[in-house]
Write a structure and sequence with these properties.
This protein is of the alpha/beta class. The chain contains twelve helices and 13 strands. It has helices at 3-11, 82-86, 111-115, 130-138, 141-147, 162-174, 189-196, 211-218, 223-234, 253-265, 283-288, 303-316, and strands at 25-35, 43-48, 69-72, 92-95, 98-101, 121-124, 126-129, 150-154, 178-183, 201-205, 238-245, 270-277, 321-323. Strand 9 (178-183), helix 7 and strand 10 form a beta-alpha-beta unit. Helix 4 (130-138) packs across helix 6 (162-174), helix 7 (189-196) packs parallel to helix 9 and helix 10 (253-265) packs parallel to helix 12 (303-316). The structure holds iron/sulfur cluster (2 copies). One iron/sulfur cluster binds at residues 70, 87, 89, 91-92, 101, 106-112.
């Protein structure tokens, strides 16, 4: 079956909240095997598409939208112009050696992806059933057993596809796997509570303690996020919290101190706090999606600054391993 048929066939089955569909599909944009940084042991990471936040520094902007989307990789293009001539929607124009896609016209038929021999076009996101995801996850079963690994559902924000996520977590538990979610915790408490019932470990991040600044940086306030993190602590879920350190945005000692105090208030649930210095590896993807990257002038933080902030958080979070 061609990829375009597969997308079309699956598209109508996708649902965010219909729990009763036997053939419920999730929109997955990547599955990575042999991951070692996202939940302990050797893990398979399943990335679900869709996110309610719009973090300016996002390293995976292809994860934001809740539908498949076309991405072009300009440096692969050999200027054959084939895509522009075969696009049935006339959505592609070729001007001054550059391919332009009119995303309003594009219906994701997949023609340009299939016919571009240079691999310059791709569609991000494919619809998979829980069984198909588990089949992929089960391939590394021997490694999970020997390393105490498991499966991590990431995103985007995996709770955006809550029905699929809950089914997948339940299935993973039936298979005897350790389960983790990598979540921004921006969802209703009801959904989060249901997700947590089947989750062993929560990996989350706190972007800013000031709700107004959080909204400026991500498009959403932080109150629901902090409430859900507190809910996970009350449910005694193990958590690893990250602070993405973005120079000039959230890296003041005042904000990091406020974050450390909040983390400390969560008690024994928090097993680790990581400070993750900003990097620019995701920047080219914004261009590939025809979106403007808003932080292009920002440089990664100085090592000394990161070390000083780690020292600061360690004074508040004595029993928490500080990493990053
Ligand atoms: S078909 Fe591929 S290589 Fe040819 S112009 Fe289009 S994107 Fe470039
Ligand atoms: S996916 Fe189809 S409609 Fe969209 S740009 Fe490619 S050929 Fe055109």
């Amino acid at each position: 079956m061609s990829i375009s048929m597969r997308w079309k066939e699956r598209q109508h089955k996708f649902s965010l909240d219909d729990k009763n569909k036997a053939d419920l599909t999730g929109l997955v944009f990547d599955i990575q095997r042999f991951a070692v940084h996202d939940g302990g042991g050797i893990r398979t990471l399943v990335f679900l598409k869709g996110c309610p936040l719009r973090c300016k520094w996002c390293q995976n902007p292809e994860s934001m939208g809740i539908r498949p989307e076309i991405m072009r990789i300009p440096h692969h293009c050999i200027s054959c112009v084939k895509c522009a001539s075969l696009c049935p929607e006339q959505a592609i124009e070729y001007r001054e050696d550059v391919v332009f896609i009119d995303r309003e016209k594009c219906n994701l038929c997949g023609e340009c992806v299939e016919k571009c021999y240079a691999g310059s076009m791709t569609i991000v996101g494919r619809y998979l059933t829980v069984d198909e995801v588990m089949e992929e996850v089960e391939r590394d079963r021997p490694f999970y057993n020997t390393s105490q690994g498991g499966v991590t559902f990431s995103g985007g924000e995996p709770t955006m596809q809550s029905a699929f996520l809950i089914q997948a977590l339940q299935e993973a538990k039936k298979h005897g796997l350790h389960t983790a979610i990598e979540s921004c915790c921006m969802c209703t408490p009801g959904i989060f509570h249901e997700v947590l019932k089947h989750t062993d470990l929560v990996l989350t991040d706190i972007k800013h303690m000031d709700s107004e600044k959080h909204k400026e940086l991500t498009g959403m306030p932080n109150n629901q996020i902090l409430e859900n993190i507190s809910l996970a602590a009350r449910m005694r879920k193990k958590m690893r919290i990250r602070i993405p350190l973005i120079p000039g945005c959230n890296d003041s000692a005042e904000n990091i101190e406020a974050t450390a105090m909040f983390v400390q208030s969560l008690g024994e649930s928090v097993e680790g706090l990581d400070i993750l210095p900003y990097h620019r590896l995701g920047e080219p993807k914004w261009e590939q999606l025809d979106r403007k990257y808003l932080l292009s002038g920002i440089r990664p933080p100085e090592r000394e600054h990161v070390l000083a902030l780690k020292e600061l958080v360690s004074t508040y979070c004595e029993n928490v391993s500080i990493g990053g």
